[in-house]
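User: I'm preparing a small set of examples for a lab meeting where we compare how different chains pack in three dimensions. I only have the primary sequence for this one, and I'd like the structure in token form so I can line it up with the others. Please keep the answer compact; I'll paste it straight into my notes.
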Amino acid sequence: TMGHCFNPCVTHFFHFLKFTLDHENGYACYTAAMRYLYANADKYSMNTDHIGGSGYSKGEYAITRLSDPHHETRKEEVQKFKGFPDGTPEAQPWQGYSSKIQAGMQGMGMGLFETEYITSDYVPNLIICGEHDREVITEAHHVFVKRCEELGANHLGLFMQGLGHELPHGYDERMGVDRYQLVHDFFDRYLKVEEKLPPVVLVVSPFNNKEGVAPSSPISVQFAPVMDEKSVLETKGIRILRTKTNKEVSGSWKVSHGGTKFTFTPERPLQKNEQYKVNVSTRIKDKAGTKLDKEQTVQFKVAVE
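Assistant: Understood. Below is the structure token output for the 305-residue chain.
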């Protein structure tokens, strides 16, 4: 879990407002921290094949930069001290070691300049924000998530109902998920790779037992890790059924979020006041060939009007 590139002057001059050096020295700080872990893996009994990072509020920028798999070639800081050379004259420590992470969670934050570092092959990320956080932060969150969507990056936007400037916890009635469990399910699939865990359904929309769903509402299922698209689309691994008749609904599928989210658009609006179900079968598997361990069914009811 990363903090931020703290300005040591703040300790001695408490009235000094520039609390962070993220913009001037953050890249150097965070990559050095990661290289230290790789260099000292044996000392701390760490398996560095798969490392996840979390950064929230002032710590977000670290994960923003480290989640770019090409960050080791993009060494620029956001801004410089005018009249001074770039960085320190000495070489960065622990040279020769990687500074990469394999998954991340980040929450606003340090500002919208960060979106330029999002890439289409960004490592899997949870992008979190409490709906009651400050307006400037919630606005920045939506811009960040939108950019991830535009690039097709593997991410899940978690705009947390009822929370403020907080880490994920509690049950989100708007999404139908236990946020604490979701975080663990997400990271387990990207970090415990050697255990070959079965893929997990992170979010289904509409969620189980939801009522008042719009007839034209899209239906989506998001997984972790990246899925084998053919196992979902060609074998009808996910089916949308009308509960009363058990007849399959016609429509089209779209794959997004780096191969983790499958969105179904009905060919025609769903029947009002009718119940439907989303059936996720054990035929589906992830990219590594590991199948879903048990079938899952989610039911919802379409609005009367």
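A couple of notes for your slides: The two ends are 47 Å apart (CA to CA). The CA atoms of residues 27 and 113 lie 14 Å apart.

User: Perfect, thanks.
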